[in-house]
């Protein structure tokens, strides 16, 4: 007999079906709860609410497991490339040689953006945060491709938008940096692979020859793979929710970029580095900052520690920590911030205060150190996260569309005033 959940309300028993995922995680399907009982469920922050069924990413927070389409993150980070992982997430399978080559070629062909996009840059203040520019310009693609707002796009039309977005985001992302610096904007080079082209657009000058360092390319590939998807996190849920209204792919991803920018989400990597810099400026006494973090009367919080769904460790942090050591050694960089980071990590792993609260370093803790080592400025860290997360957002948007999910429309428990009569301004 199929499993069901009995709920007793006002002395009456109701039965609701239990649904089970491929990894045997179970959920009570309460879609008919209100119709049958008049009750809704409430779960602030969606700590216990499954918003969808998804076949993209599996995450076990207790065991520290993360898999994209069934493949362990450790294997993908070690053996794959960012474009291959993007294909895997978006199309559900590892590509053949021909499929990967075609995917890469298509993306390469679309790296240019409309010349009018360049002009939009002139309207932003030069000190604008790159995430503000990125989200605006990604949304502006809807204006350049107005047909993308149609709710009835064919598979080919959706694929074209996917390719355009994968291609153009790296040009736009690099240009946000160049614009910020007052440097000339570099056009993409179609003889380069995805990561090399991004580095070229970020760091080259028309006046000088730019050598692409393969170690930097490999570090970037790894970082982007580690960030490529993370099931129903805040920005991905935003992309799905906005997309569920039949909003365009560009508009939905732009909304996701804004969610990611928040310091409690992707903006944390920038905050981690700024925290490490503040500790260094203060003399580098990590114990003092650990004590501050433990002091209830001190508002200081250690950034990059703990995670909403990982209860023991973040598998990405393990990989990234090793990668940070490797990249710094390979590039011959000695970064005092890495030492501070290591001391903080040590404190967190041994101090009962942190252990009891399960505050161990997460993916944001070490990513900034690698980005810094490869020359990415701090305010671009969250842009790098967005670049990595893009295939995940696309895959989730596409899955939501293909599954014809209904528009997202949560309910609420109203706590405001009861009905009252309008008073004219003289009566108040
Ligand atoms: C992410 O990768 O999106 C972050 O770790 C946040 C999350 O999953 O909630």
Automatic annotation (TrEMBL):
Gene3D superfamilies the record matches: 2.20.28.60, Citrate Synthase, domain 1, Cytochrome P450-Terp, domain 2
Keywords, in A-Z order: Transferase, Tricarboxylic acid cycle
CDD domains on file: EcCS_like
Pfam family, one: Citrate_synt
SUPFAM superfamilies, per the entry: Citrate synthase
Superkingdom in the source lineage: Bacteria
Functional pathway: Carbohydrate metabolism; tricarboxylic acid cycle; isocitrate from oxaloacetate: step 1/2
Catalytic activity: oxaloacetate + acetyl-CoA + H2O = citrate + CoA + H(+)
Key word Cytoplasm present: no
Keyword Thylakoid: no
NCBIfam families (UniProt xref): cit_synth_I (TIGR01798), PRK05614.1 (NF004126)
Protein family per UniProt: Belongs to the citrate synthase family.
Protein's name in the database: Citrate synthase
Organism (species): Hymenobacter algoricola
């Amino acid at each position: 007999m199929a499993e069901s959940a009995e709920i007793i309300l006002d002395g009456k028993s109701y039965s609701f079906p239990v649904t089970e995922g491929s990894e045997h995680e179970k959920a009570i399907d309460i879609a008919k709860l209100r119709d049958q009982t008049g009750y809704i469920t409430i779960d602030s922050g969606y700590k216990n609410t499954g918003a969808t069924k998804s076949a993209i990413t599996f995450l076990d927070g207790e065991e520290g497991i993360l898999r994209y389409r069934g493949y362990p993150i450790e294997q993908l980070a070690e053996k794959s490339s960012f474009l291959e992982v993007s294909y895997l997430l978006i199309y559900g399978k590892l590509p053949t040689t021909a499929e990967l080559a075609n995917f890469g070629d298509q993306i390469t062909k679309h790296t240019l953006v409309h010349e009018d996009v360049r002009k939009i840059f002139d309207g932003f203040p030069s000190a604008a945060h790159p995430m503000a520019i990125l989200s605006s310009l990604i949304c502006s693609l809807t204006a350049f491709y107005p047909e993308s707002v149609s709710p009835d796009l064919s598979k080919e039309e959706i694929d074209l938008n996917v390719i355009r977005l994968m291609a153009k985001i790296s040009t736009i992302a690099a240009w946000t940096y160049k614009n910020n610096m007052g440097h000339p904007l570099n056009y993409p080079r179609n003889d380069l692979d995805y990561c090399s082209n991004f580095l070229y657009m970020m760091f080259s000058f028309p006046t000088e020859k730019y050598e692409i360092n393969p170690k930097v390319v490999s570090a970037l590939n790894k970082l982007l793979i580690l960030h490529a998807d993370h099931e129903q996190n805040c920005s991905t849920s935003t992309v799905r929710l906005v997309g569920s209204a039949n909003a365009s792919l560009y508009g939905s991803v732009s909304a996701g970029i804004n969610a990611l920018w928040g310091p409690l989400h992707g903006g944390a990597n920038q905050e981690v580095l700024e925290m490490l810099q503040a500790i260094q400026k203060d003399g580098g006494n990590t114990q003092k900052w650990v004590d501050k973090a433990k002091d209830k009367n001190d508002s200081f919080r250690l950034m990059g520690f703990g995670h909403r769904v990982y209860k023991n460790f973040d598998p990405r942090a393990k990989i990234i920590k090793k990668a940070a050591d490797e990249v710094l050694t390979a590039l011959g960089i000695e970064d005092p911030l890495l030492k501070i980071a290591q001391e903080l990590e040590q404190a967190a792993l041994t101090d009962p205060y942190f252990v009891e609260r399960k505050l161990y370093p997460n993916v944001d803790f070490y990513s900034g150190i690698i980005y810094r080592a490869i020359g990415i400025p701090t305010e671009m860290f969250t842009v790098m996260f967005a670049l990595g997360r893009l295939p995940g957002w696309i895959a989730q948007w596409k899955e939501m569309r293909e599954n014809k999910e209904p528009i997202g429309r949560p309910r609420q428990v109203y706590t405001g005033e009861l009905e009252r009569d309008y008073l004219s301004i003289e009566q108040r």
